[in-house]
Write a structure and sequence with these properties.
With about 400 residues, the chain is mainly β. It has one helix and 34 strands. The longest helix is centred in the N-terminal third of the chain and has 15 residues, at about 5-15. The chain is globular.
Length: about 400
Amino acid sequence: MSSVAVYCLALWLGAASQAAGSLEFKDDAALDGRSVLQFRAIEFRTTPAKPLEGDPALGDGAQHGLLPVGPGPETGLAIVWLPHAAGGPELWLDADGHGRLTGLERHALSGRELELPAWITVQLEPEAVQVERTVVFRRASLGDGLRYAVRGYAQGSIEIGGRPLATVLIDGNADGCFNTVGQDRLWIDLDNDGRFGAITEQFPLGKPLRHEGQTYVVRSDPLASSVVASLRSAEQGKLSLTLAAKQNRNEKVRISAQLLSDLGELVAIDQLDSETDVPTGEYHVSSLQLEMPDAAGETWLYSFYKDKGPQHRVQTGQRTQIVLLPDLLMHVTLPRQVGKIRPGDNVTITPRLSASDGLVLRSCKVGKNQEFRQAEPAAEILLLSLDGRPISRGVSGFS
């Protein structure tokens, strides 16, 4: 066979192994009589979870939270919950994400549920876009808790094995997107009988599925406008994780890492410096949890998410090692309009702890016996002379 023929055959096999489809968004709460709403509890605190402008009369007992919608914490929507307001329970939602509360964003929650429109940031290439969605709030059966879900699902068909099969994608983690591997739900009518079997035809997105003797992996973009079923090779290599030298001094450190392949397959690893058999391909770390005990007997729980980072190739029969959290750096940003700062001025700054591998700190908690509380961040403030000598110093918390 000529080299040209081999090249053409490779192109044909590549096209046959990947078949893209586009699903259509449906703004409904149920499909075929089954609810598709995936509710998520909102974590509240006494101070704003995100800087807010405006001066609404919130009163006593205001609880602040963040709806974790979009690709990261920066795109979350601020919420204020007053379960014991004088006129009845009410909530404020920064629905457009502009960081300012107005009277139009104040809502009474007289019943158990409340539906509100909101704008959610979706990360597409080359830039992010905003889409309008309906957020459903639901009061807890007991206590003052509040949960939320993003209404809607994506429906259409994708090709698997050369045939179009009815497909549904469900937002499993209430982030308003359809590309969260391991949490969003994938329904595929594999036997083409017009129904979605609860056991054999519903999967977490990113889980390999068998169809007619072949293994496929399905991946999606955030809007489900490009959903691809890829044929997975049976060849394997080995993957191991290790911490960068500065973070690897504590022998009792524990990790829980999720990695994504270039096909969209999810691989979970919870051991350091141990080899794991994985399909060949390119991988990146999409999320990481790090547990480290301190001298006082408490455990610190750090949660990281991926912003941008390198891909790591795993080849057949070979071992690839990924170094976690190299070159940790703290970045602090100020609003552009900030000029001279005078004593007594309030200054809003945004800290961001990231590593050169693209992982960014999402949260930090501390506690004992699996009972964790949010670790309160603080900033050391130095007043310097013109020649850089410290004149005074202080410590300030973050809201």
